[in-house]
Amino acid sequence: TGMVIPVFFSILGWAMMGGSYAVTEGVTFRAMVLCGRFFTGLAAGWQAGIVPGYIAEISPSSLRGKLGSLFQILLTLGAMISYLLGALLDYWIVAWIFTVFSGLHIILLFTLKESPLRSRNVLKNVQSIFHSKSTLNETEKKQNCCKPQYLWRLILVAVIMTFQQITGVNAIGFYAGSILSSANVGTKSVSADTIASLCIGVVQFIATFCSIFVVDRFGRRILLFFGSLGLMLSMLAFTVFYGIVLEGLVYHTEIPTNSSSCDLIPAIKNEELGSRLSSLPIASIMVFFIFFSISWGPIPWVILGEIFPKEIRALGGGIGSASMWLSQIAVTLIFPIVSIEIGETVSFLVFSVICFLLALFVIFFIPETKGLTLEESSSVKFNILTNVREFFLLMKDCVKCCWIACQKIENR
Fold this sequence. Notes:
The protein is mainly alpha-helical. The chain is built from 18 helices and no strands. Mean pLDDT is 77; it is low at 122-138 and 248-270.
């Protein structure tokens, strides 16, 4: 039921946006589009808080990382399809297509079974009625959330989902079109924004799909750590590009007519540097989304589904989802203003520092849940020293696996 209700909001939202095409009055048109966006956003946020927990409850421990990553894979697949349809069709046709998809979604949801954990809870409630045992009331459930062993999990997931957005993923998406335009990407018929959206969608889908093969092999923390370092290097590359190429040293250099020959030498050197760096922004975008899609894209959703005990799993999923969407709104609204005030170079440099801090956050604060059952992962204790020690043991195992793989390649 929890997954069915939001789909009705999705149908309503897409139908309102599709029907807005028939409205000629400007105010009514804008109201229908905005209301449609509101209802589709409500549906997406609602399901984002429920689906990861359901996946974790029905998955065996050996496959929970892979199946949990499927949530992000399907998100990127949906984004890629929407980018493609948006580039080929009018918006109202796309809206009616997604209305039909939402209707099929409801039909398929009724084929799903209730999670085993929830079924056991229902059975316990029925047994408690026959044995005259009262279940937890709402006040007791709220008191559970204030217990230290529950509270740190709620805070940790809220911080993780917030960090997922302040990696700069939306800032890169926001600037992708202009970055590619500066690298002379795009034609008269296909804009750089369209090319950027399609490339990002394809890269995210492929990289996220590859993540299901490594998330249960290397663990959550190793991927998050190296993903943070990869995001940091990509952001540093953007800092170099904006600082050297776009802020007056290459493309914006103008040579006055009365300049001497000595003024021409650095201009030629800058132009040569600009031509050498023309592929840097494209490569940086691709590398950024590859690292994001195998680390901070899918893994926070995996952690969201497996770290909460059953008493607060629904509340934890809601808090994690709300934290992610609110931080996404904040970054989207604040980044353009900040980039104007302090410049894109400093903005991307700040993002690179944040990504480095994320790597440290992974070492000290995120526990490893690879290979644990759902009951074990939801009862993991929070201890900074234990987290640090386990991280370096994981690093040791990772280096050992890489060394063995290199030896096998050499033997071949």
